[in-house]
Amino acid sequence: MGKWFDFMKSNDARKAGFRIAPKIGRDRTPGWHKEGDGIIVLSDAPPQPSIGLRGFACLVAAFLVFKASVIVWLGPETFQAALGELEGGALFDRLAALIMAPDLVSQALAGQIIVFLG
Predict the structure, then answer these.
(1) Cα separation of 41 and 12, whole Å?
(2) Structural domain span for residue 14
(3) pLDDT digits 0-9 by tens, 53-95
(4) Is 19 in contact with 31 (CB distance < 8 Å)?
(5) Among residues 59, 60, 71, which one has the least CA distance to residue 112?
(6) Is 63 in the same domain as 91?
């Protein structure tokens, strides 16, 4: 083996701040690994999703709070009338009406907002 490879396997490399990462697939960290034929291959970490599960859950919760606040601000009758207009529109309008349709969670949140605001 070469001096560099022996150095990287030693504890001196870890003390110097180098880190040996296993092959991609077992670990998602970039690093290098030694192939079976002795070639050292640098590997990069696979791309991470830009939003995780926690971020997606926060996004959905924020949207439900937004929808509930719109229901409170417009009132249920005006909100249903606006949805009726959207349902008669183009494809994008119908999609917006489907997304903004009141569900159990947004209606419950709207009731809690009304109670909170008094």
Answers:
(1) 21
(2) 3-43
(3) 899 999 999 999 999 999 999 999 999 999 999 999 999 999 9
(4) yes
(5) 71
(6) yes
